[in-house]
Structure formats: C-alpha cells, structure tokens
Amino acid sequence: MNLVGAEVCPTSMKNLFRSSLIQNVFRVRLMTAIAVVLVLVPRVASAHAVVVQSSPTINETVQGPDVAVTMKFNSRVDGKRSTFVLSTSESESKPLAIEQQSAPDTLTARATRLGPGKYAIHWQVLATDGHITRGEIPFSVK
Ligand SMILES: [Cu+2]
Q1: 0.85 exceeded by the pTM?
Q2: Distance 57 CA to ligand 1 centre (A)
Q3: With 42 labelled, which of 32, 33, 97, 106 sits at a CA distance of 20 to 30 A?
Q4: pLDDT in tens, 10-45
Q5: Which H helix or E strand runs over 46?
Q6: Taking the CB of residue 103, how many other CB atoms lie within 10 A of it?
Q7: How much distance in Å is there from the Cα of 107 to the middle of ligand 1?
C-alpha cells in the first residue's frame, strides 16, 4: 500500500476546498467592506461639528482679564442651540453668552474679568445635520 499516494489525494482536495473557502470568506469581507464604505460616506459628507480652529487654542496661556473666545467648526452650527460654559479651577462654572454669528461655522463669546489661573470652555454645538457634539478647551490666564 502506498501511504504517501493515499494521502496525496485527500490532502490536495482538502487544500482545494480550503482555498475556495478562503476566497469566499475574502469575497464576503470585501463586499462587507464596500457596503460599510457606501453606508458611511454620506454621513462623513454631513459630519458632526468638530472644532477646526479656536482661540484660545488648547492649553494656550492668554492675557486677562478679558478673553475673546472664538471657535470655528468644520460645518455650519446653530448658535442659538449651542452653549459655551466656562469652568474655573475652583470647579465653578458659568455660561458664556454666544454672540450673534458673523459666519455660519463660527461661534464667538467673551469671557470677562478672569484672574490668573486655569480655565476651560466646555462647548456643545448643534450642527445643521441635527447632531450635537461637545468638547472642551482648557486654557490659562496669566
Ligand atoms: Cu452629524
């Protein structure tokens, strides 16, 4: 009996089966990946609002006592339905009045009478796609 010859056939058939199974798995994964991309692309196009530019910048030290706050977003935001809250290192927080928008993607406010210390602006904005996003910008006053 040829043991090697007896093994060759089933092994090669197994390999053949395995390789076509791998191809099928790969094909399914590829189709899934394409489907995921197709579903995600329109959402990326109308992305949630994220800060693309700000003043103060993150961890910036600025001159007090009055600080002009500006945040530019990657999309249009609704200033009337957005908030800026200033927090101090003493865990106090107070809302800042958002000024009338001079540009649809930008929000501004004014923080006044800030003594030297650490602060943060907690922002929450409503983008025109209906999504709310939030974040914070820590900064210091010298
Ligand atoms: Cu969104």
Answers
A1: no
A2: 23
A3: 106
A4: 444 455 556 666 566 666 676 666 565 555 554 554
A5: none
A6: 11
A7: 18
